[in-house]
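The protein record minuted underneath.
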Amino acid sequence: MRDVLVVNAHLIRDRSTLVTNGWMHVSDGKIAALGSGPAPQVEGTEIIDVQGAFVAPGFVSTHSHLFTSASRGLGASEYLYGWATAMYAPTARCTPEQMYWHTLHGALDVLANGVTTLFDFNDPRRPWAPMVQGRRQELPPLRPFEFGTAQLDAKVASGLRTISAIQLESENDDPEKAFEDWAATVEYLRGQDRSLALDAAVYGAVQWAPNPAVAELEVRAMGEYSVLNQAHFLETPEHVELQQSKFAWYADAGALGPQMIFGHFVQTTPAIVEAVADSGAAVSWQPVANGRLGSGFADVVGLRKAGVRVGIGIDDQACTDLSDPWQAMRFGLFGTRAHQQDPTVLTPADVFAMATQDAADVLGVGDRVGSLDVGKFADFVVVDPRDPDIGPVRDPLASYVLAMSLRNLRSVYVGGRPVAHGSRSTHPLADECRRRIHALA
């Protein structure tokens, strides 16, 4: 792999470190050195002159569903379960091969928008069925094993770094078979390129489960395979008491701890927040999706004050309709300030961290991604405040969060290699993927 030297950059290394007139040396896909002033002369190195643009860490999403990329605009005025019924319809009968292209479409989309690491929920093998009070009204048969592995293949092929959550399909009479199938999928993932397929995780499903045995099986998987578990939890304002009662299932099963992440986490109680904080569990915050679906606004300020780790997730392309990390940062920032009527409760630096380093820490990969530090993967974005021009940059980090957008995103790099320029993917299958997705509609 050829070395790269980025020069003439405003390096945003993390929430508190800006390097003006900066340079960054990339070797073997990782950051080898960086500094300010004249760049070192490294023979045989490709020079990337960004001409004063921002160079910042690639965004990290703590919660996404890549396969939904071609299902946007559906259920536009529905709560969670009505939206889900509409959104799942286009992919309900997909073959493994078709699901490969759906997932690749989603992965290339987020990469082109500056997201370089992502926690993704594999679409489960059991198709979606309508929910009443958080419970399935029917139990469709499982789709083939390859339905899951095709999604894993697409993620690796895209060049996106992912942690893939796989559901234990235990809503049957044989939980041991469900565990074996889950474990086989995990082993398949762990045989892939581990610089991209960072690891597997449990797709927490207690929110829709009929009994506490589901939580117990998930905890077994967490322990035997040393993986994270992220559960969609306390999300919708429908049947809140039922949702809250299921928190005890996780607590009693022993799930609470640093391996546990609660996604959405809107309909909480003080006791639940205290238990999560005391255990070291984390929260994935989806401000845009929660707004789109009328779910409510998570008390992120209260969670952070309690000591809970929080990272932002861009969520579905089908329930945010854009995989836009700036949209997520600003919606979260402005909504929180408006809700609390206080502009000091959350800062641009806070949401930037929650979309980069804090998100990486929540996912347990903060030693590899999330900031521009020596030894980490060279995953970065080039963002130009002069195209379109915003005028003089007086506060770089505030301007990056408040005034930049996808219009300013010039290029995206993963491991020092370009994966997108402007809004266009550089992937060799990008055009074919677009054609196939439209042909499937």
DSSP finds 15 helices and 19 strands in the chain. Residues 212 and 249 are 5 Å apart (CA to CA). The first strand starts at residue 4 and ends at 14. The first helix runs from residue 80 to 88.
